[in-house]
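Anyone up for a design puzzle?
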């Protein structure tokens, strides 16, 4: 029975997993309301809220799972990447519990969690496959050759996909987090109303691959420019125009992602794509990816909504797999702000 903690950003989460995939509890305490006035996550406030919430949430998880700490056989916690103060809360609590109970402990990479969330609901995901992580902090493309065997092929060169959704929503005063709001508003608009162009990617990149990289800052700037030109003081944008604008933005953001997905799958002849992270909850992306998969005979997998966004179930899954292989972390494991899987694990 694996107990897991996730506190890398603005969700405190605790899960209890009977491996391989029987989830006994998966609780998420979101702090969105604290950060709404700031239009983004305030790291210091996030850390403080994690501290208030983590013990009661852990107690609730034990009750929901119908177990006590005596039944737990291993403990996992997210150790990277994320906000340091936030990560330290879950990591320190998990380490203390494990040390006090003499239980094996493992620190888990949050991205590796997203890449593996799909296995909690599917036991037929083929290897190798393309793993796409699209969240508020990350946009990365991996060839996943097996458990703990990841090859980074491309990433965003600037904003993460979710960050672009959040920034466009902020620009239009639609609220925070922007992704789900833009998704809803876009469903009411015309995705072809405004034409935004796709970024031109040069071959070089920080990962030395380049051709599969994506970029969202140009699109975000194009939206801002469009607003500047069209949002005239005595004639503010109508709700319908905003719907069209966010639908057009979302359409282009999905196109940007699909362009890399389609290139990678073709070049590497992969049989399946797994999409994860908060933006995997996006309805336009899910539809575009599913339709594309059917057309090209490529299997596409999305975790269910609750496993797309941040959660501790995915951390429990990865932790349980490492612990089953006898891999544990040292007691001096620290939190780290950065860390793509396959590079720093
Ligand atoms: O994976 P996640 O919960 O946290 C990070 O690790 O970043 O992802 C949160 C991100 C936010 O940027 C949020 O706006 C975005 O995922 N998001 C969405 C949707 N739901 C969440 N973006 C687009 N459409 C959605 N339906
Ligand atoms: Zn995440």
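Challenge accepted. My sequence:
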């Amino acid at each position: 029975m694996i107990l897991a903690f996730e506190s890398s950003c603005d969700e405190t989460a605790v899960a209890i997993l009977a491996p391989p995939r029987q989830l006994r509890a998966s609780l998420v305490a979101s702090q969105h309301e604290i950060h709404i006035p700031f239009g983004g996550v305030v790291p210091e406030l996030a850390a403080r809220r994690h501290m208030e919430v983590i013990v009661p949430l852990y107690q609730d998880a034990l009750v929901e799972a119908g177990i006590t700490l005596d039944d737990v056989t291993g403990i996992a916690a997210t150790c990277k990447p994320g906000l340091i103060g936030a990560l330290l809360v879950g990591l320190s609590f998990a380490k203390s519990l494990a040390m006090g109970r003499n239980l094996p402990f493992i620190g888990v990479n949050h991205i590796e969690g997203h890449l593996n969330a799909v296995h909690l609901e599917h036991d037929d995901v083929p290897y190798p496959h393309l793993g796409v992580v699209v969240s508020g902090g990350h946009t990365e493309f991996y060839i996943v050759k097996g458990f703990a065997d990841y090859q980074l092929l491309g990433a965003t060169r600037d904003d993460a996909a979710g960050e672009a959704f959040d920034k466009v929503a902020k620009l239009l005063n639609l609220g925070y987090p922007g992704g789900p709001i833009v998704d809803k508003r876009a469903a009411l608009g015309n995705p072809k109303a405004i034409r935004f162009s796709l970024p031109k990617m040069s071959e070089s990149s920080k990962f030395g691959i380049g051709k599969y990289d994506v970029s969202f800052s140009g699109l975000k700037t194009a939206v801002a420019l469009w607003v500047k030109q069209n949002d005239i003081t005595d004639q503010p944008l109508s709700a319908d125009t905003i719907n069209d604008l966010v639908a057009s933005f979302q359409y282009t953001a999905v196109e940007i992602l699909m362009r890399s997905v389609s290139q990678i799958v073709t070049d590497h002849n992969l049989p399946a794509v797994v999409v994860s992270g908060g933006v995997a909850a996006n309805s336009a992306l899910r539809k575009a990816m599913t339709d594309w998969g059917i057309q090209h005979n490529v299997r596409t997998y999305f975790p269910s909504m609750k496993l797309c966004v941040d959660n501790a179930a995915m951390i429990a899954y990865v932790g349980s797999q490492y612990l089953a292989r006898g891999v544990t972390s040292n007691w001096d494991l620290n939190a780290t702000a950065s860390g793509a899987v396959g590079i720093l694990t």
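A detail worth pointing out: The chain has eleven helices and ten strands.
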